[in-house]
Design a protein that fits this description.
The chain is mainly beta. 0% of the residues lie in helices and 40% in strands. It has no helices and 23 strands. The strands form six sheets. Strands 13, 14, 15, 16 and 17 form a five-stranded antiparallel sheet that branches. Strands 1-2-3-4 form a four-stranded antiparallel sheet, with no helix packed on it. A four-stranded antiparallel sheet has the order 5-6-7-8, with no helix packed on it. 40% of the residues are buried.
């Protein structure tokens, strides 16, 4: 994961799936390691609190469950720009894909946890803290096989969030995923209640989603469909596609389909141009 300080293009952080965290203050000319002495070295998520550039939230454990993958030890936080770190629990999540932080309150954060890839566990889904990580509440849990693949929070109203939930299981000889619980869910009340807002079919997973920074009614969600013919890369239909909503997730339309996918883990990513938020 990569995150930078808004208004300061010289300062940003780079974290590796199995390589710690590095910080630059000169636009990438040089990098310094800042996460060398922690129990976990695999990083899945790194987020700077929007209201305080010195507060960093880090989720450990690689967020892409390949067969050779690093595992994590929960959540860490720094309040001094990465000089020192404190472990905040959730060690049994094993892998964390994303962390979102309240735009105005750096003590309020939600963790998107995939959970174990080789077996079931209950410490997966979406966890929320309102006290800077001292305590956690599981606010979205489907079952012991379904984790959170991505989460997004509205900037102007952090009570509205979207979470892509994904049922998956890595096995030595194959990878199983999809099903009726693999879908995009929405909350309008800060996580107290959730409602399924986008479901494609049993073979697909909602992997990545973005919210327009100026108009929160505009959303895009990317799904992927893995080829069931092992090791062959194929052109897929609606299963591997980008979907677009113009009304805050109430309705969705197909924006782009036929995206290529594969038998192992054909991840799709979405981003919005900083210079032109209409460019996806």
């Amino acid at each position: 994961d990569i995150d930078g300080v808004p208004g300061d293009p010289s300062t940003f952080y780079v974290s590796g799936a199995d390589g710690g965290i590095f910080k630059t203050t000169n636009g990438g000319v040089s990098f310094n390691p800042i996460f060398e002495n922690q129990r976990a070295y695999s990083i899945g998520a790194l987020t700077i609190a929007p209201s305080d550039k010195n507060i960093l939230w880090v989720g450990t454990g690689e967020g892409d469950p390949r067969n050779s993958v690093g595992y994590g030890w929960g959540v860490y936080k720094s309040i001094d720009g990465g000089i020192s770190w404190k472990h905040l629990g959730l060690k049994n999540t094993e892998r964390i894909k994303r962390i979102v932080v309240d735009p105005k309150d750096p003590n309020v954060a939600c963790v998107c946890a995939l959970g174990k890839e080789w077996g079931p566990n209950k410490e997966r889904g979406v966890f929320k803290t309102i006290d800077g990580g001292k305590t956690w509440e599981k606010i979205l849990y489907i079952d012991e096989n379904t984790g959170c693949a991505d989460i997004a929070m509205e900037t102007n109203n952090p009570r509205i969030m979207y979470a892509g939930m994904w049922t998956f299981r890595r096995k030595p000889w194959r990878f199983d995923d999809g099903g009726k619980n693999t879908a995009l869910y929405r909350t309008m009340d800060g996580g107290q209640t959730w409602k399924k807002t986008l479901f494609v079919n049993d073979n697909t997973g909602v992997i990545d989603l973005i919210i327009h920074p100026e108009n929160p009614d505009l959303l895009w969600a990317a799904t992927w469909e893995r080829s069931r013919e092992a090791w062959n890369f194929v052109e897929s239909g609606a299963g591997s596609a980008v979907y677009h909503s113009k009304d805050g997730g109430n309705n969705w339309e197909l924006a782009s389909d036929g995206l290529p996918t594969g038998a192992t883990l054909g991840r799709i990513g979405l981003s919005i141009s900083a210079d032109n938020p209409d460019r996806i």
